[in-house]
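Team,

Forwarding the record for the chain on the shared tracking sheet. I've put the sequence and predicted structure together so nobody has to dig through attachments.
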Amino acid sequence: MLLKSVLICVSFCIQFSLQSEPSENHYWAGVVEYTHKETLSNTTKVSPHNRTLDNLEKYKEVIRSAEAYPVDIMVFPEGALNTIDTAVFVPNPEDSIFPCNDLDYEGIVQELSCLARSRRKYLVINLIEKATCLDPGNPRSCSTDDSYRFNTNVVFDRKGIVIARYRKINLISEYDIDKTVEPELVKFHTDFGVTFGTFICFDLMFYTPALQLVRQNVTDFVFPTMWSCQLTFWSAFYIQRDWAYENNVNLLVAGANHPRTSTTGSGMYAGKRGRIVATMSHIAGIKLFVTKVPKIGAQEGDVIRQPINDDIAEEMTDHDLNRNQVDGYATMGLPLSSNDRYSAKLCHNELCCSFTLNYTVDLPTDPDAQHYRYRLVVYDGNRTLVGENADVIITTCGILACSEDRFSTCGIRHFNASSVENVVQFNSIEVIGDFPEGEGIFLVPSSTDTSNLPLELDEFDYSHQKSDSHNFVQYYLTSPRSELLSFAIRGRKFVYSNTGTSWTAGILGILAGIFTALSM
């Protein structure tokens, strides 16, 4: 009996000794790239109830896995667990409810609460929430069962208590999902000394809640998403990395994986220290990524980056990425001849950008050989978001690869990466933009290669000087580089709302219809 008690004590103590402490300069996190079971097996559609139970079992397997053992906080993706038909009630965090085995709540909420407690982990779960219609001010009417449906992040602490609940405010093609009357700014505290903010997918593109939380000095974020990737400026890798870099925050991204709709992208990004781990996969699957995350403001240390597959260019050939809307940009073709110093200035509406390049050209002997051409591009103006009838405001200047001479091929990769010849090597690039507006604009450095991977931090320099009336930005390529797909300063403008309480954001045109294509 004594031996058994000792063993239990040792096991208990070992488990708790792995929890990160407030005094430590890091914590352990896990993010899950997830494809639901039905997609993996290519079976006929199952009932919403059975599908939700299948997904719950997969979630439980991941949480209980050996790989998850050191994790303090684990994040699951958007739209992967349940459906409109299996929406669940979620406790109000103000009530500090422990819903494990509480029959007032549905089974998936009970089981996840129990699991958070037994595994001693913070769990961030995105699900479809059901809420009683008690708010007459909601702009949307109730469903037939007198309840709302929200796209919701739920956070369980190590005791299984619901400590945070965030309902997505910036919806895209989510026609069966309701919005709160006022946006929610949600953050939660942990026992390892880090305060997290949370939002969902499309929220990243808006001032509220994402940037508003940054302005409140939140330094770490958990971000469930179902990101539909677009070339060239809007693939998950560099959208997420660039946002974390410019704000100098830790961003933990868990992405749903549906290759047939260009939906993929998970990772962990350590602010100005860049990528820790990131993935984009053309293969449906479930993968947990675990790593140590340095705390913002703690003693600086090297980030241990997990390697990216060297064959990703070949793998991404099978990933059908959508093309971003770049038609209507002011453009100028880059001569296909070597230049020690090529300079140009290009303007569109209020934005003017200057370019200085040193590049080497080695044309193929075969006139039919596939290779990339390049154009300088500048855009400053409105876009209409496809399918949403929403005007948005974007501003950008940079260099863009084109698969042929025609501008309509810009932002389109050659299909067979192995057959493409590297004709242009950029030895140095300088892009300078003087952007109108002061605080009403958000700008990031954005670059990617033909494998759809962002450049590493040691390959560029970025300088941003801000005043009340303008933003002066300088962006430099500091190491010779071939296989560039884009190199740009990318931004969106914000317009103050009529309510005077929040900002709405101008955003680049992300493909609408994500949830329609993935309707359950």
